[in-house]
Design goal:
Shape: globular
Cofactor: pyridoxal 5'-phosphate
CATH class of the largest domain: Alpha Beta
Modified residues (N6-(pyridoxal phosphate)lysine): 196
CATH topology of the largest domain: Aspartate Aminotransferase, domain 2
Function: Catalyzes the reversible conversion of 3-phosphohydroxypyruvate to phosphoserine and of 3-hydroxy-2-oxo-4-phosphonooxybutanoate to phosphohydroxythreonine.
Order of helices and strands: EHHEHEHEEEEEEEHHHEHEEH
Number of strands: 13
EC number: 2.6.1.52
Largest sheet: 7 strands, mixed
Catalytic activity: 4-(phosphooxy)-L-threonine + 2-oxoglutarate = (R)-3-hydroxy-2-oxo-4-phosphooxybutanoate + L-glutamate; O-phospho-L-serine + 2-oxoglutarate = 3-phosphooxypyruvate + L-glutamate
Distance between the termini: 33 Å
CATH architecture of the largest domain: 3-Layer(aba) Sandwich
Bound molecules: pyridoxal-5'-phosphate
CATH superfamily of the largest domain: Type I PLP-dependent aspartate aminotransferase-like (Major domain)
Structural class: alpha/beta
Number of domains: 2
Length: 360
Amino acid sequence: MERIYNFSAGPSMLPLPVLEQAQKEMTNYKGSGMSVMELSHRSGWFKEIIEGAEQGLRDLMQIPDNYKVLFLQGGASQQFAMVPMNLLGSKKKVDYVNTGSWSKKAMKEAERFADVNVIASSEEENFTYIPEVTKDMIDPEAAYVHITTNNTIEGTAFGTIPDTGDVPLVADMSSNILSEEIDVSKFGIIYAGAQKNIGPAGLTVVIIREDLIGHAGEDVPAMLNYKTHSDAGSLYNTPPSFAIYMAKLVFEYIQGLGGLKEMEKQNREKAALLYETVEASDLFTSPVREDSRSIMNVPFVSPSAETDAAFLEEAKKKGLETLKGHRSVGGMRASIYNAMPREGVEALVSFMKEFEQEHK
Ligand SMILES: *Cc1c(COP(=O)(O)O)cnc(C)c1O
């Protein structure tokens, strides 16, 4: 069977050359006589993989030396709790920007540990834009400010990263890490579940400024303490070894394309193609304010639930799959992460035009 264009919000497509390389190395990794899944995580083979993965990510994102890279488990959802557990120290208050479903889940976890102050929100407009965040909104006594840089469900993204001064900025970057160039030094912590732009599910990447490590209380379990993983080079216990190997291949693949500069160029072109089609259409509309649109997740709606359903059914027959919008937004959502080829977006927009001709 042919591969389809999978527009899923996650787990999402992986680059075909990466899958093919993994397939080639599946049963005998570099003459070890084993697959990566069977290698000891204490072996030289695996040491080379995990160190290579870290270096690959450092090179791509130009991560400064005073930041640690941690390869963890538990998903972005576990970071919702780990962030307050590790950063609060003697402080009691934390600032959050509420830009959608994932922000709300992050806040809900933080409420177990801290007084959560929502400094900006777009909830009153159904999260269809990114609210402005200025320095004077931030409580200087807050342990950190939390943002969701790309809102996977709502299809919005921060165009500029807010300046939070001396209060560390923490970002859930699950759905747009590696999609464009960013300045890591603006952040205290960046975290991301791997299954959108990095690799298979099961791996969570945390990039953390060194001075933010070591503030967890005695009651914080070892596995939930950044210091445990930082001290052990992410090998405190058995890490998700195969997912780390896949991530390393993805990092090498992106570097081979020309790094994040080239990745960003491709992503902006793909997104423009889709938004231009929606704008020109008399059938489809975008629910998102123009200045807040994501280049990773593109929701669009037709005038009726019946038309949406017909679109989804016919798209599937053309190998354009998982385009159903999140239940909170409805309509369609095309997730066009790094690994979605331009040809996939071209196939989608030509189908949209064809569908519109038949349904106007
Ligand atoms: C997918 C996603 C999550 C949840 O990630 P898990 O790894 O499944 O916990 C959190 N935040 C954002 C922005 C996401 O896109």
